[in-house]
Amino acid sequence: MTFTGATSERKGIFETAGDSTVFLDEIGDTNHQIQLKFSRAMEWWDGESG
């Protein structure tokens, strides 16, 4: 995964997990913006891996 302005390559949490499980404990206790970012990332990743 890359983005404009990236200066180095680093795997994120979803890419590192690969086909494993990412456990997000008490995600409901985080603020709405963080929940939305995780939701978008999971939707994007599901589309890329499928």
TrEMBL record:
Residues 2-43 form the Sigma-54 factor interaction domain. InterPro entries: P-loop_NTPase, Sigma_54_int. One of its GO terms (biological process) is regulation of DNA-templated transcription. One of its GO terms (molecular function) is ATP binding. This is Sigma-54 factor interaction domain-containing protein. It comes from candidate division WOR-3 bacterium JGI_Cruoil_03_51_56.
